[in-house]
Specification:
Length: about 100
């Protein structure tokens, strides 16, 4: 598997999905903040459905990359942001 191509792509995709997750949480918990239906559906699909799946997949791939000691060109803030958001998503999912 070509980790040097897949992991950076999934990391960028996870950042976009996590931003949609944050917007979706704001829509859910801030009263009076309404978006058009198509935007709410877009943020809902990317934020609530796709973000946890992409973060779990990225976490597993990152574990494999660290275990195999493969050198990747990833920004550290992306890794910390994505793994932090995975933790938040797991807490909100199971709490």
């Amino acid at each position: 598997m070509n980790y040097k191509a897949y992991v950076p792509f999934l990391s960028r995709l996870a950042v976009l999905c996590n931003i949609c997750f944050l917007i979706d949480m704001a829509i859910m918990y801030i009263p009076g903040w309404h978006l058009p239906n198509f935007l709410a559906n877009f943020f809902g699909v990317l934020g609530l459905e796709m973000a946890p799946f992409v973060n779990l997949l990225l976490g597993v791939l990152m574990f494999i990359v660290i275990f195999k000691k493969i050198d990747l060109d990833l920004r550290k803030w992306q890794t910390f942001f994505n793994m932090g958001m995975l933790l938040i998503q797991l807490i909100t999912l199971f709490a």
